[in-house]
Amino acid sequence: MKISTDASVIQASAEDVFNFLSEAKNIEVLLPADKISDFKYDENGCSFKAQGGIVIPLIYQDKTPFSKIDMKSGEKAPFSYVLSILIQRKDENSSTGHIEFEADINMFMKMMVEKPLKSLFDVMTSNLQRHFSN
Fold it and tell me: What is the torsion angle, in degrees rounded to the nearest 10, for the CA atoms of residue 87, residue 92, residue 94 and residue 96?
């Protein structure tokens, strides 16, 4: 299963966005506060509980300076996945960002999780844009 969000314009340099997202504690800013709980982080990544009690661990896998951050599923994940945050420089003070998600899941699980995940990633992309517009 693959999910991709539309790109959002962010009023910050690609470097600023990359550095912000490279700190796991800042991922919480992107998440919908009313739909998650038990957010925890360390230098390797973060985890949180989504509605329904599912634990979503995001572990930093690879960071390509100022353009891409890959996070993978952790040991308590309900299935294996990679979440990529892609950042593209527009000019000195602005960039675009979007999320790509790829998971190896069966059709039954896909039917259950695809719509809520797409909604979550859209909110995350929007919240990233909103964070830097303040």
Answer: -20
Q: How far, in Å, are 49, 77, 89, 114 from residue 18 at the CA level? A: 24, 25, 11, 26
**Running along the chain, 134 residues long, what does each successive block of 10 average in pLDDT?**
96 98 97 94 95 88 98 92 97 96 94 91 95 88
Q: Is the pTM of the predicted complex or chain greater than 0.90? A: yes
Three-state secondary-structure class, residue 20: helix
134 vs 132: CA distance, rounded Å: 5
CB 98 within 8 A of CB 86: yes
Q: Decide if 10 contacts 97 (C-beta within 8 A).
A: yes
Round to whole Å and give the CA distance between 88 and 67: 6
Max CA separation in the chain (angstroms): 45
